[in-house]
Design a protein that fits this description.
It contains two helices and seven strands. By secondary structure, it is mainly β.
Length: 79
């Protein structure tokens, strides 16, 4: 099992700075998902910025969420 999200910071370029339970900081790019279903709502930066950690993953105000394993595996190390 991959580490879980303990903190998230949204960036204006539609990326997320994620801190995981193993203390690694990684960047996840949300842009590829912004034209898919309910994720379209996140094009509004106010909605995008509503992201919070939720049960080891993340969730936005509109109920959108992503799998914590995907967040870890598809993110890149933050320098």
């Amino acid at each position: 099992m991959n580490p879980r999200v303990v903190a998230v910071k949204p960036n204006p370029d539609y990326t997320l700075l994620l801190t995981f339970s193993n203390n690694k900081r990684r960047v996840f790019d949300v842009k590829p998902y912004l034209d898919i279903g309910i994720f379209r709502e996140l094009k509004d930066l106010a909605q995008f910025n509503s992201v919070k950690p939720f049960l080891g993953s993340i969730q936005w105000q509109g109920g959108q969420d992503l799998c914590p394993d995907m967040l870890y595996e598809r993110s890149v190390s933050a320098n």
